[in-house]
Fold these 2 entries.
Entry 1:
Amino acid sequence: MRLYPIQCKVNGEKVQAEFPAHVTLLDALRELGFLEVKNGCEKGDCGSCTVIMDGRTVNACRVLAVQAEGREITTVRGLGTEDDLHPLQRNFVEKGAVQCGFCTPGMLLSAKALLDENPHPGREEINEGISGNLCRCTGYTRIAEAIEATAKEME
Ligand code: FES
Ligand code: FES
């Protein structure tokens, strides 16, 4: 099977790899060890595979790995570290917005992209911003509160 070379940046680090044309960015990232990018549905429905590509969120299951050529990708690992959490990560923990945690990486990246574009979102804009990310645990209220608290903090 023909392999296509891909060069991109993931969380600021240069990544070089080769994948067949049909492989999704989700599968490629997970194969390269970025297991924080979660596979929930592979159909673009759940948002658990959300990454930021050149400043915009995408469902990695709906993007081919070859489309990542020359792009900058951020996974949740690129937001903060265990010792130096991004304010969104800290507020998610403090507000109880993380339960099973499966949706959390994608949810955090959608929240990050939202605040980058709109630093003072109202509740409706927050709900819209995370509308592509399904959470079966939290009821979304605590997630929205965590995003609101982060926006206030970052004023
Ligand atoms: S795994 Fe990509 S949207 Fe569900
Ligand atoms: S915390 Fe479990 S799916 Fe969101």
Entry 2:
Amino acid sequence: MKITKIRTTPLLCKFKQDYHWADGVTLSSPVVLIEVETDEGVVGIAESGVGPTIEPMLAILHDAIPHFIGKSVFDGNKLIWDYFRSGFKARGVGSQYRLFSRTMSGIELALWDAIGKCIGQPVYNVLGGALHEKIGYFGFVQGDRPEELAAHAAQLVQEGYPVLYVKLGRGDALDLAIVKAIRQVAPDVRLRLDANEAWDTLRALRMLEKLKPYDIEIMEQPVPGVGGSEALLRIRSAGVPLSADQSVYLPEEVFEMCRTRAADAIVLGLHETCGALRWRKAAAIAEAANVRINIHGIFETGITTCIGNQVGATVPNLDDANQIMWQLLEEDLIESPSLTPVNGFLPVSKKPGYGFELNRDAVARAHEEYLKRRTWAPV
Ligand SMILES: [Mg+2]
């Protein structure tokens, strides 16, 4: 089965409410829809994560696409890394794995969808079979002020989420008020916090001490990821379990994080690893260290939720409260299946490929929004 065309459609998917986190307020999710067409009429669909803006990633994708045309959909492993060496690294940007991975992940992931659809099997079977029938997701608490966040937290507990996840790094007093307010309405829920690299060592130690009475299950990446395992090791003495997010993109970085015992969990998305193969390699390294891996979410749609659900089903050390992002959108791109977790879990689709149907009208509207605004950063 040969690749005949790869279509790229830039999309800007608006959030239903302002998204507050350590780096400010974000209003929309930018993605590039990737559709790999084949000579057998099968179309593999995925999306590339975008950053910092859509246009440079589109330019890289358009440079890469000719390398794939006329080649077999079963050669993704070779084609992706041939292009990395000859089309990317050879131009002097070999250290830019993160940009490469987030850009090219859409093609790698769409090829798995095409293979699954071609043989009539879900992607988890293409990857060797599922270990999980359903995948767990955390309740992602949204809002600006503590009272808004607490009200949403109470609602998520009512909906049956066993784990809640809250963004911090918005100022110490506000952070503490948010956690206090949430604990008042959700005293027993497993609570995870993410400060998105906002704190230096001293501030992190001070904040973790103040947060201890609130029974924090995991503190995610409170210090800059560029500091790697060393930055997390410096705050280990606080005694709060830590997870690594921005510290870790590559399997090599997972190895280092596990080797140094700097993190208790690894948070890693399929766009960050350039797709399913390297995400599973990273998961296997963490498994060898008895460390669980959490499917990271970033600015994305339900397409990525469906992908993570399939690929995540194949690894034994998958976390039970992964990140889910599509619900933040005013309108998702998925027509079916329903991606609303029940008691915090989504079943793993048994349909061919990733098992989703796109809402083409929603895609057209998100493309219109891109053409209108062409930017995702609030001003
Ligand atoms: Mg994070």
